[in-house]
Design brief:
This protein is of the alpha+beta class. The protein contains twelve helices and 45 strands. Strands 2, 3, 4, 5 and 6 form a five-stranded antiparallel beta sheet that branches. α3 packs antiparallel against α4, α5 packs antiparallel against α6 and α7 packs antiparallel against α8. The longest helix is centred in the last third of the chain and has 22 residues. It is elongated and about 115 Å long. This is OmpA family protein. InterPro entries: Bact_OuterMem_StrucFunc, CarboxyPept-like_regulatory, OMP_bac, OmpA-like, OMPA-like_CS, OmpA-like_sf, TPR-like_helical_dom_sf, TPR_rpt. Its main location: membrane. It is found in: Cell outer membrane.
């Protein structure tokens, strides 16, 4: 990265003073020396080659392993580094005086903070004197490891996704920058643009690249066209601004300065110095111009006795907007004695994101944010963005969108493809958690119960909901958390405590269903005499109180036994959209509980793969509903405050459909004494149509059946016409008429008693389907 020199020089000063040599074979010693020279030039890959050769020239060698450990650490191959350092000590307990320093660094990079602190303390207490100049640096590392342990124990809700080979390479990539439409990504890479232009490090000069895509998915990158890139000069993009028509650019000229390029006719112009104060003999690696172009923040080593970077600000002069005011250093609450770099401002210009090696960093550069208060003209104490945004490595060049939920960052954390890589930073998505609160034994819905969800790992991540009259609740929660749930009565009494794990969501708004069964007595449970238990009926007529709970318990079977996992949905008869759904459990049982709120009819649809769909119609009898053969006497024959309907379904068609198999087609209605299909029949008939489409070889009989009221001739005639009406509907939908036969049976094949109307004669009036040939 642009400012990499400071980190590398610090590491190499330690390295060159630390590396020592023992007596060993001349060829291995020579190769190790060559490795050290390559390391001195930061040509890490070449250094690795020499150390590996030294390690094999005369067998395993402790000093070669030690060199491999240090070099891999500087290449951010953290796990490999730790393995090599451990191997070095196995071969020679006194391999190097500064072994524990590097071992601590390797543990630190691998997030093993306790082991890192222990190694640092051995180094401080046993290897270097109390007055050694390195004491302060190592004590800082101990402090950073302690910070790291804290951040690791309470990670923030962000995913970090490597952008992959379309953007990253074995070389350094950094400084992500998005266009306003978020469809083009600019970034900087040290991949060799020209094989003849290789730096002493063994990589290329920094150049600006672009790629197209979105989010974490990008196409192959290409060199930015125009005049921004320059041969044998490090060039890096810094910021797009002024509607993407201007680009702030870094170049290695004058020890590192900021320039400006302008987009003219689709081509970027040759960069010119941005301002006098960003084009000095000091180091000015990064900056940010706010939205209206009136203020610029930039990093500079100006007036810093240690040569470290601070953040500065300059404003355009009101009397001459082509000129800038004298730069002002941001206050000490933002700047520290260490480096501050990579400023990025929110759209309102009040939140500043930046990277720092000071403050409470867990190692290297960490990303921080601070907020400006216009009334007091002060900045808040910077907040560390936490793990996994930050790591013990360098985490820098952070940018974010207007929502604060998505962004990009440069990092040399464990798992990079080479050196620094670019990552997408994505906040965990919220999900909709919904379900029902019911009494465990009776499944009656419980309204006005309070549900409190609290994350088990992060304070402040929580949510609350109140169950409605139907027992249903719904709320939004952050995914990727396990929550402790308390269900309370209105008086505060806790009736249930449970754990709910919400997995990481793939997209915003995903739904998670979680029902809660409360183990309390049902004080208004329906008496046994008030229950209707019905065996394999497709039409059930019941009168219920619409303001109370309607409980439906069902059992689904086929001819062989119970059917587990069958989908059961319930809808209003006038709608094709279910409002509740569930699946049968291991015993083939399902439960519904809800408060109707009105007098209406319901349809229960039961579907199972490779089975014929099955419908149960729950019909509310109402005065004047004569077209469904209900008398005033029938209306009073059932009067329940609460209904528990149990249906045992014994007919469904398995995949091995047998000739002669038949089933009732529930949900088909005709006008009184007529063969005219009522509109609500369409839902059931469409299910039959879909079944016939999926099974094109089936030949089917549609049978019409009546009760025993009236003469045999009239009933047979009416049943035939009704069966034919169903056949005509299916033919009109596209089923070949050769596959369908209509037969009227009249009242010759009742399936229940004809002694009474309700749940008797009304059930016998039906349409059945029968498989003639498959």
């Amino acid at each position: 990265m642009k400012n990499q020199y400071s980190l590398k020089l610090t590491s190499l000063l330690f390295l060159l003073s630390f590396l020592g040599f023992q007596a060993f074979a001349q060829s291995a010693k020579s190769l190790v020396k060559k490795g050290d020279k390559a390391l001195d030039k930061e040509n890490y890959h070449k250094a690795l080659e020499y150390y590996k050769q030294a390690n094999t020239s005369n067998g395993e060698n402790a000093d070669a392993y030690f060199g491999l450990g240090v070099t891999n650490l500087l290449l951010f191959n953290n796990k490999e580094s730790l393995d090599y350092l451990r191997k070095a000590r196995e071969l020679d307990a006194d391999v190097d005086k500064h072994y524990y320093y590097w071992l601590g660094r390797a543990f630190h990079a691998n997030l093993q903070f306790d082991s890192a602190v222990a190694s640092y303390r051995v180094y401080l207490n046993d290897e270097i004197g109390k007055n050694d100049s390195r004491q302060d640096a190592v004590k800082t590392l101990i402090l950073q490891a302690e910070f790291g342990k804290t951040y690791l124990s309470s990670p923030v809700d962000y995913q970090i996704v490597n952008l992959g080979t379309e953007v990253n390479s074995e070389y350094s990539e950094h400084s992500p920058m998005l266009t306003k439409d978020k469809q083009t990504l600019y970034f900087t890479s040290r991949r060799p643009a020209n094989p003849s232009e290789i730096t002493p490090r063994g990589d290329g000069w920094e150049n600006v690249y672009t790629t197209s895509g979105k989010g974490s998915h990008w196409s192959g990158a290409s060199l930015l066209t125009g005049q921004v890139n320059e041969r044998k000069t490090h060039t890096s993009n810094v910021q797009l601004y002024d509607n993407d028509e201007k680009m702030l650019v870094y170049k290695s000229s004058k020890f590192g300065s900021l320039y400006e390029s302008v987009l003219n006719g689709g081509t970027w112009s040759k960069p010119k110095p941005f301002a006098k104060f960003t084009n000095t003999q000091k180091f000015e690696p990064d900056g940010f111009v706010i939205k209206d172009g009136s203020v610029v923040y930039f990093a500079s080593s100006l007036d810093n006795k240690n040569g470290n970077l601070d953040l500065w600000i300059s404003r355009r002069k009101e009397e001459d907007t082509t000129k800038w005011s004298e730069p002002e250093r941001l206050p000490n609450i933002v700047n520290t004695d260490a480096d501050e770099d990579a400023p990025f401002l929110s759209e309102d210009g009040l939140t500043l994101f930046f990277s720092s090696r000071g403050h409470d960093s867990m190692g290297g550069y960490d990303v921080y944010k601070t907020t400006y208060e216009p009334f007091t003209r002060t900045w808040s104490k910077p907040i560390n963005m936490g793990y996994p945004i930050n790591t013990p490595g360098d985490d820098i060049y952070f940018i974010t969108d207007s929502t604060g939920k998505n962004g990009y960052i440069t990092s040399n954390r464990q798992g990079t493809m080479g050196q620094e890589d670019i990552y997408m930073v994505k906040m965990y998505d919220d999900v909709v958690v919904k379900g029902q609160v019911v009494i465990k034994t009776t499944k009656r819905p419980l309204g006005d119960y309070i549900l409190n969800f609290d994350s088990q790992r992060k304070l402040g991540v929580k949510g609350s909901a109140l169950s409605g009259a139907d027992g249903n609740y719904s709320l939004k929660l952050r995914s990727g958390h396990t929550y402790t749930v308390e269900v309370r009565k209105q008086n505060g009494e806790v009736v249930l405590t449970d754990d709910v794990e919400i997995p990481m969501a793939e997209s915003e708004g995903a739904e998670i269903v979680k029902n809660f069964e409360i183990d309390i007595p049902d004080t208004i449970r329906t008496a046994a005499g008030q229950r209707i238990v019905l065996q394999n009926l497709n039409l059930v007529r019941v009168k219920y109180v619409e303001t109370d709970s309607l409980l439906i318990n069902g059992e689904v079977r086929d001819n062989a036994g119970i059917l587990a996992g069958a989908l059961v949905e319930i809808r209003e008869e006038s709608s094709n959209k279910p409002f509740l759904s569930t699946k049968t459990d291991a015993n083939g049982v399902y439960h519904f509980g809800f408060i109707p709120g009105k007098q209406t009819n319901y349809v229960i649809e039961i579907t199972q793969k490779n089975y014929f769909p099955y419908l149960v119609v729950l019909n509310y009898p109402s005065p004047g509903n004569t077209n469904k053969f209900v008398t005033d006497q029938d209306l009073t024959s059932v009067a329940l405050n609460q209904v528990d309907v149990r249906s045992v379904l014994t007919y469904a068609f398995p995949i091995d459909i047998k000739e002669g198999a038949k089933a009732v087609l529930g949900g088909v209605y005709f006008d009184f004494n007529s063969a005219d299909l009522r509109p609500e029949s369409n839902f059931a008939l469409d299910k039959l149509y879909e079944f016939l489409k999926r099974n094109p070889r089936i030949i089917m009989e549609i049978g019409g059946h009546t009760d025993n009221l009236g003469t045999a001739y009239v009933n047979k005639f009416l049943s035939q016409k009704r069966a034919q009406a169903v056949v005509n509907y299916l033919i009109k939908k596209g089923i070949d008429k050769k596959r369908l036969t209509a037969v009227g049976y009249g009242f010759t094949q009742p399936i229940t008693t004809n002694d009474h109307e309700l749940n008797g004669r009304d059930v016998n009036r039906r349409v059945e389907v029968k498989i003639l040939r498959k």
